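## Example record

The block below lists the input lines for one assembly entry, exactly as stored, with component labels intact.
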Amino acid sequence: MRIGRSLTVVALIGFVALMLLPLYSMIVLASAPDDSDLSGLRFTGFALFDNIGEIMTDGRFPRYLMNSVLIASAVSVLDVAISAAAGYALARLRFPGRAALLNLVVVALSLTPAVVMIPVFVMLSEIGWLNSYQGLIAPFAASALGVFLVRQFALGIPVQMLHAARVDGASELRIFLRIAVPLLRPALLTVLLLQFLAQWDNLIWPLIAASEQDLWTLPLALSSFEGEHGIVYHLQTAAALISILPPLVLFSFLQRYYVSGLTLGGVKR
Amino acid sequence: MTDGIRVERVTKRYGNQVLFADIDLHVRDGEFLVIVGPSGCGKSTLMRIVAGIEPVSAGRVTVGGRDVTHAHPGDRGIGMVFQDYALYPHLSVEGNLAFGLRAHHVPKEVIRQRVADTGQALGLTDQLKKKPGQLSGGQRQRVALGRAMIREPAAYLMDEPLSNLDAALRVQMRAELIEFHRRTQGTVLYVTHDQVEAMTMGDRVAVLNEGEFAQIGTPTEIYEKPASVFVATFLGSPRMNLLDATVRPADTHVELTSGELSWRLPREALPADLPESVRIGFRPESVRLPVDTGTPAYELAATVSYRENLGNESILHLRDGAGRTIIARLPPRSGPRDGENATFQVPLTDLHLFGPDGRARWHGTELADDGQPLPWSA
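Predicted structure tokens for the full assembly:
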């Protein structure tokens, strides 16, 4: 019994170590003063802050970081707003065509992003939105996943409660803002987090839609990180380390909601 | 605000299905009227039509004398208490009470005052900052009542507020609702499927069945003079005994025969146009052990199939000579045991006669309460 438990603990520690190894390796490389040892296992020195300082002051990195923050924030906020309104309406308002619209959302859910990439590219090119912030934001500002997630969650809001608000004299907008949105908070924060992370990591779309370097985001910048004398690994790794910090901070704040949002438990009373 | 609630010739259709047609109901000012009926009879839909949550297909609804047929639920002058109360879980008690006032853009100072007054009237002053989840069942009901009354509505609608409570709390909350009505003298339309709530809470009871009011009257009227077999069997537990019987008129009396039973009733007491075949109804508490009270009572020889001792009373399942089951309700520890034969009595004044269409033709109770000497006392 006791031996079994010890074995379990040892095995778990082993797994955790395995998971943390790449992160450790990343910190080692990002701290290296030069590219002399690329094994990523031994500290050859500790120049992490010098490296970060160099990245943030030299070159275009701050601009890429700002682009990423701007685009991921704009997309996730817009997506939350649209998902909240559409998901709530699909779950709890009666209007003609509701079932058809819901089916459309479910169909959209099943499409892989790659399938729609070229049509969206053509559309944006028609209206001249390539190489613009709106061209990087608009295609993701509404997501089928967000709408569907909120809709499923909104089914947990008792209809009676909405009727009670109507009898209280509230308008539909007031009911949405004062009753539905607060009750949907776990789902909305989940959508916010999912979409922020998705956009933060989005490489392919900026690669296609933003050929101008001023519009580049972190994944694009990291994938083509070059100094004056070719690729400088310790600097690239330090940049990558910076790039994982914002989502990490966001996630640590929101993971409580993220978990309860994914379990879709309905509205607690 | 002197007219209560009126439902006039209201029709509700879903597609081709008619839930009810040309239905009328008047809840008088200050009256507590209970709509009772089996599930699916349309009682909740009717209430939602009055509330404005459900649109009418045809007809008119007025509250406090004002036509509100097409008004928004918030502009009808009604306060509503929902099943499970439907409080806003993310708002404090204060927020729940103030929600309707805020929606109507009432000034902040007025809201604060009204919330304080309502909280005090309902004994919620110490709970105002709490969320509904932190309240007891009784406190939740009071918040729901407060939310309904804070806008001083012309009428209250209550949609099965007690149906999901446990038995003990239900009794307590029933008493609180009755007390609430006494104090506010408000017009209340109350929907339930629970016959105990109907009998104990209502000034009047409206029995709804398959989209029609089978009977509207005081609880006593409904219990003592049920208008149909449906009403007679829906209210009262255990339900009324019903026996098929044949009517044979003679010179001075009418003979009712049912199996081995033969009952003679004075001819002038009965309506002249009784059909040949009727159903006799009498409630379980009307079946009693023989006593001489001077009122003619009809004897019933039966075997006890089994008896249920409930402590405060005993329910006897009897089998008569024709093999029919008759339910009797007797005081505890009295009467025969399982398998024993016994003779019981059913007083004439407790009989009800129903026609083949199920409509009531005659109530023995009428003999007892019209003040006239009973026909057989001469």
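The mean pLDDT of chain B is 89. The CA atoms of residues 300 and 344 of chain B lie 5 Å apart.
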